[in-house]
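Prompt: For my understanding, could you write out one protein's sequence and backbone structure tokens?
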Amino acid sequence: MSADHPTLPPVRLPADAELARDALAAPLLARAVRLARWAGPETRVDAGGELADEQLPEAAGVLGLADDEDGETWAGDAWRLAVDTGLVAVEDGEAEDLPGRAGPGENLALVTGGSPQDVLGLWLDGFDAVFADAAAPVIDDLDAILGEDGEIDVEALDWDPEAEAEFLEGVLGNLYLLTVSEGGAGDGPVPLPALAASMVVPDDMGEPTDDVLEQVSDAMMRLDEQFRLLEPIGLVEYQPVDEALMAEEGEEPAPPVDDEDVTRYGMVRLTPLGLYGIRARMLEAGLDAPAVGDLTEKGADALLDGIAGYPEAAAREETAAWLAGRDALAAARELLHAARGSDAGSPLRRLHCQQTLSLVGAEAEPAVREVLDDAELGGLARVWLAERGATDVPAPPESMIFWLAIDTIAAQLSSAGDLQELQELIEGLTGRHSGFFEAAWRVEHPATAEVLEAMGRLHRDKAAAKDARKAAFKARSRAGS
């Protein structure tokens, strides 16, 4: 019965121009741009492209951070981002022991001369670089992991780069889902303990064990470090874990109990730019992560199929955007044509077609009247006309009444809507039509048997439920004969 729906709810994103402004305002990228404009013939870098130590004080001054105790660190971070995103071009020294040079890179011109999409592409490169840094291990004692050759001994790190990246991807995916889901966090922040628990606590676990709580605590502290790194690129707004909770140096806080202020344990919120960035990574990974407005330029068939898994408000917003700028009558005809079919998704397409036509208004009436005699659309057309007070609507034949009933229930089953509303629909139909099941099993609709079986499960009157199951058996026998 169910058709393929998007794996994630649709996200509402600002226009690209607004997102591009947010990207350029992100502190880390803004600093990287300033350093790229500062870089010139006298700028010196080491063999790895890092800004030479003697240049860091001047770079911090350029950023207005000369008096900040972490100014040189911020300058180093911004320089690395400038190199990673092509805002700065690095040239190696002529000899191994000579410093290299640096200057503005090709991508610096995109900041003022590029399109919003160019700027967002630049920001995505920066996000990728910061993500890699966030997934890298935290090294407290460099000497302990240096090998005899002076190089870092990767095995001594006890670090699985794929597992770390997968964990952070999972966290950001959960945060995205909590933000875009109906009844989720929305624009509000998410407590860090809840986010950590979503990655650690099994779904079927009741009361977490002490071992699981310790894992949640470990995850919280790792996420605290990672979100501190991700905030300057504009991905999130983050309130860090309250350091006062650390009773002793190196001690990790336990997850909060109910009567404690959960905000002290960290709060994180995805920005619109963060939603854009995570969605971009999901799309690159092959996930179906729709955005409201994706279907605006597509045909009616793509619209009706695409909104099948959308929440009601998002579906209405998408269809309103699709209708805007289209000729009303032509749009109505296109919608009705796309609503035809006998595949598993067709009942829900017809339901969404009817709902979309309600946004078109009276201009759709000629197109609706054209399908009054259509076996699949005639019932829908009569309902639409009756809702608008038309008095000359021809009475439907009995076969159309029962076909529409089966089609309507099939659509509701596919939409996974409110169970009580579906039960009321079923009981209302059977209450208004005596002998409903005796007629219903004969309906020439591909979903007849499945609908009758569902009615047998959902009808709260035992006798009616039994009649529905008998009718479903007859429908299956008839279909197989």
Observations:
- DSSP finds 21 helices and six strands in the chain.
- The beta strands are 44-45, 88-91, 100-104, 190-191, 236-239, 267-270.
- The chain has a mean pLDDT of 87.
- The first helix runs from residue 16 to 25.
